[in-house]
User: What shape does this take?
Amino acid sequence: MAAIYFCPCIRPFGAAQLTDYPLCTMLAEDPECLPDHVIVVDRILHKGWRSTVYYGTCQDQEKSKVAIKFAQMDRLLMEAGIYDNVKDIQGDCIPKLYGMFFGKTIRNTEMACIIMEYAGEQLTDLLSDLPRQDRAEILSHLATLHSHGLHLPDFAERNVVKAEDGSYRLIDLEDAQDHECGWSLDFRNPGEYDPYDVEGRMACVSLRSISSDMFFWTPDHIHIHGLLMYRRDELPTQDIVDALPLSITCIRTPHKLRRCLEMFYKEVWVKMEKENITLKVIQDDKEALFLRIQKEHDEKYGSEDECIRQKVKK
Ligand SMILES: [Zn+2]
Assistant: This one.
């Protein structure tokens, strides 16, 4: 096991009180696997109740940038073990882990740290405020982590770092939990959000909830009578939908409701775009139009009573 010699002023906690930063000399037990390193510690990346993370530069030819994390021994062991189990995504979704190192302070107290690739600074923006493409990358990393059997409870901005080249990595894996994930949708090319797809490609409550909290779906969707629908050219904009509320009382099945609403707003959009009928005229006539749409729906798909009777027969 490798050893690391700590300057006495490096402490796991209370990092804010430090006035300067020392050299760390990392001595490897097996120099063939890992050469000795001197790391110049420059600043604090993160300080909290449970951990302190320093930024350092290795005094090697590459001047590799590293993050050195101090925390309670058992938490570090847990986190290093998790990194070990997902080696294939290190350097992509999560930082590379260079190792866990043990040492003693001058008071002979046991200390440990993990040294990782420096992958950028913690997010200062809200996840939901990031450009959609960036949110897609972060969610895609999260989905990869899930597919490797790991779920990050309370996922938040603190779990994400951004590098200078604009790429993102997920950090703080010590609280990760075992997870069996049914999600198979690609966030970089997600297609249509389907609120009913709880058993298909979107079968993960956590990813559904996180992606919704990040408003990942809403920019490309419109809210129609409490339903989310994919925005497309044949539907009107959200402000027009909002200006045409409907009093719907006689539709009992969600499928019929969704189809009727789609048919209704498509027709509204045709009237406004192609026939130059004003919103005011449509507003005055909307309930009659919606009744006609329901009749057309029943002629095409069958009435709800027939559908329900058929289901009961089966
Ligand atoms: Zn999942």
In short: The radius of gyration is 28 Å. The longest helix spans residues 279-301. Residues 146, 179, 181, 183, 204, 206-207 surround zinc ion (CB under 6 Å).
